[in-house]
Predict the 3D structure of the following.
Amino acid sequence: SSLVTIGNFTAVKHLPFRKETVAGLKDGSLILISQSATERNFDKIHDQPIRGLVATLDSKFLFSGSEDRKIIKWDIECLRPIQIVTLEFKVSALHLRPGSKQLLVGTQVGKQYTCAISDLTKQGEPLKPHGNVISLIVEMDDGQILSAAVDMRVVFQIPYAETIFWSPAKPVYGFGEKNL
């Protein structure tokens, strides 16, 4: 396949219900790859590396985030954009919260946005849990949001509680300087 030849993918998302995989490339392209290695290209909208790919549980919609500051909601069946939103900062990570119908967006300046899945509108003010590039956002079984950045700092966002910051060099709790 050309994907192996090109070797420049920056994000990958497997779609189990469809038995397909989406690959995001350095040039902003998105490719849908079937089990038989058939490739289909999405419309080319992004013009910088793809940094985040997430899909709804039913694999009907895909969300892509890129260094071009765009978040795109895609119809996976026809590989066309449904909605495009441009943020103030480059996108570095995405996480879909299906239960709450929210998309969490990490940026290269350490800000974290929450957007509605339905129309990508921003909900509330962005959090600033990190000093630089957010590289990972995940949700734990109990609803905690964990984010990590290239500054080696991990942030646990606990619903209805204080935020816990952790760094390998110096663990801190909340917004103060109490050790864990």
In short: Residues 1-5, 170-180 have pLDDT under 50 and may be disordered. The longest strand covers residues 9-15.
